[in-house]
TrEMBL record, chain A:
This is High-affinity branched-chain amino acid ABC transporter permease LivM. Pfam families: BPD_transp_2, DUF3382. It comes from the Bacteria. GO terms for cellular component: plasma membrane. It is found in: Cell membrane. GO terms for molecular function: branched-chain amino acid transmembrane transporter activity. The lineage of its organism: Bacteria, Pseudomonadati, Pseudomonadota, Alphaproteobacteria, Acetobacterales. It comes from Roseicella aquatilis. Keywords: Cell membrane, Membrane, Transmembrane, Transmembrane helix.
Automatic annotation (TrEMBL), chain B:
InterPro entries: AAA+_ATPase (IPR003593), ABC_AA/LPS_Transport (IPR051120), ABC_transporter-like_ATP-bd (IPR003439), BCA_ABC_TP_C (IPR032823), P-loop_NTPase (IPR027417). Coiled coil: none annotated. Pfam families: ABC_tran (PF00005), BCA_ABC_TP_C (PF12399). GO terms for molecular function: ATP binding; ATP hydrolysis activity; L-isoleucine transmembrane transporter activity; L-phenylalanine transmembrane transporter activity; L-valine transmembrane transporter activity. Keywords: Amino-acid transport, ATP-binding, Nucleotide-binding, Transport. It comes from Roseicella aquatilis. One of its GO terms (cellular component) is plasma membrane. GO terms for biological process: D-alanine transmembrane transport; L-alanine transport; L-isoleucine import across plasma membrane; L-valine import across plasma membrane. Residues 15-270 form the ABC transporter domain. This is ABC transporter ATP-binding protein. The keyword ATP-binding applies. Belongs to the ABC transporter superfamily. SMART domains: AAA. It comes from the Bacteria.
Amino acid sequence: MSPAAAIRDAAIAAAVAFGLFAMLVGLRTEIGPQSNLILRQRWAAVAILCAIVFLGRLLITWWLGRRALRPTTAAGPWTARLQQAGRLFAPAMLALALLLPVLPGVGRYELDVGILVLTYVMLGWGLNIVVGLAGLLDLGYVAFYAIGAYSYAIFAQYFGLSFWICLPIAGILAAFWGVLLGFPVLRLRGDYLAIVTLAFGEIIRVVLLNWTELTGGPNGISGIPRPTFFGLPFNASGDPDSFAGFFGLEPSPSHRVIFLYYLIFALALLTNWVTLRLRRQPLGRAWEALREDEIACRALGINITTTKLTAFALGAMFGGFAGAFFATRQAFISPESFTFIESAIILAIVVLGGLGSQVGVAVAALVMIGGFEVFRGLDEWRMLVFGGAMVVIMVLRPRGLVGTRTPSIALGKRRAISGDLVGEGHG
Amino acid sequence: MAPDSGRPAPGGVILEVDGLTMRFGGLTAVSHVSFTAARGEITAVIGPNGAGKTTLFNCITGFYRPSSGAIRLHRPGGPPAELHGLPGYRIARAGVARTFQNIRLFPGMTALENLLVAQHNKLMAATGFGIGAVLGLSRYPRAEREAIGLARHWLSATNLLDRADDPAGALPYGAQRRLEIARAMCTEPALLCLDEPAAGLNPRESEELARLLLDIRGQGTSLLLIEHDMGVVMTISDRVVVLDHGKLIADGAPAAIRADQKVIAAYLGEGEEDEDLEVEA
């Protein structure tokens, strides 16, 4: 853009700003000395605001003009750099996560944050199957988290079953509800699917809230049994039947925290392993094909109903596992933990991380959940920092942190596919 | 895995369309159309715009449920498959593959992945429906090698082998058309239905396409194609079926169709002045 055109463009922006600010800022009614209304004029403030808009617009034009826009299908320089880093990054993160409990300076608080982050990593990976791979926008994922948590709580409370028996039950029940939700919504796409899944999430929460005999209603369920180390409870008694006593260790409350940490670490890795494996299998490829073009899938003889249902069921199952873990960790659950905002956070993790990318989702969970804890000191500014950071990520990387797709198979070398070509799914 | 070489002796019926009618509310798009397509032949369906060709196609490939009539796919050594009553994905499994007028590839997946998705059912059975594959307890690796072999065969037949690892959406238009045919062939169909495969191709690409289709016929697959490019239709078809306003108006060898008065009238408009005819001819 030529300087004259840029100045004219900035002048138009300033004129629009004047139109807005003249009334909003320029004129102010106040109560006068005789308690009558008087009109105070603040044209200086308006002039300053318009000048800021003018200069800001000019700067933006100048900044954008410096970078000539060239159309290309290749991955951008940012993406290439991230990919290079990504090769080392994922193993490094894995090693860090594995060694976290034994690192110096890591105490109870850091481990608790780690457990929280890993829970969301697992939830993000679970939802990634549904949203990222199969392209089905699910706004009610927290329902499966809730079903898993309540399944464990109820089975452990009423039937006294141990965590290791309840874990698969919670997963199976969540998967069952996933299929149950899947059936009616199979015909829906895009926005309509999102609305129905949102409603499903709310229905589950409202049922949990009102079915007082079974779920305790708003009081929730408390005193949920803590997990045992394959039958050895964690307690301070030092009995030979307890974890510390059996291994001849000094009883310490941190044993349980470390155990919980490794438990969720293993569960998250299981989610990741299954997803990565399935992506290279016909089922995973069919999910991705479904995201790309449903009609073409039908013409190739793929049963869309069962393919969608497996995605729903599998995603829900991992949500259920995470829920059971949540219940045993907290020892207390109530419907308050399973509100829509949880679904929104998990979906935000998947979208910020990059649909379909495992590493991206893990980083996004770390940034969102871990960052939220780190910025606790900012008090009420925390949300602002947070929202701002999300906007910045989406502006710089509109397809998420890892926006490219790695082919599941190749004759030669696997090359990342630019996110511009990859479909986002239509439900 | 490689299809049989040598063209099987033509003979017998592969597809039988019997009194097919398709109504959309008050509009009858296809009305009492009956014809057969012979095994091992290329049958072309032609007609002016809006004649009901794509509707007929969508009925055959299960995207529409016909209002009345029957569509049967004859199979050697078995009862015919009643396509008019099967859900869409079952029709593909019965041995009917199709391409689309507006290309429908999986743009974010590589050419090779596109061809493997086409072999989904075969591979899925080999994985023990997903469960065995996750645990690594299956015949899957061998099945996958075979699937890649078939994909490689069709990639080289369509001259796309060097683009195998490129995303389908980044291929040039002509290559996308060829890839869609390769993908349909990877389902190992008895009948391949092509909806305007030559649309948007330049004359040289059309010629290559004609060669590819003859090659596919030579490998034992029967073809049914909708096409506007008369050059392609007349050179490769064994038989031509003409539709106009949803009705079948002619059915015969290309030479006979070219001379058919009703076909000429349908294409050029009935009762028009002779001057118009001369101008358009």
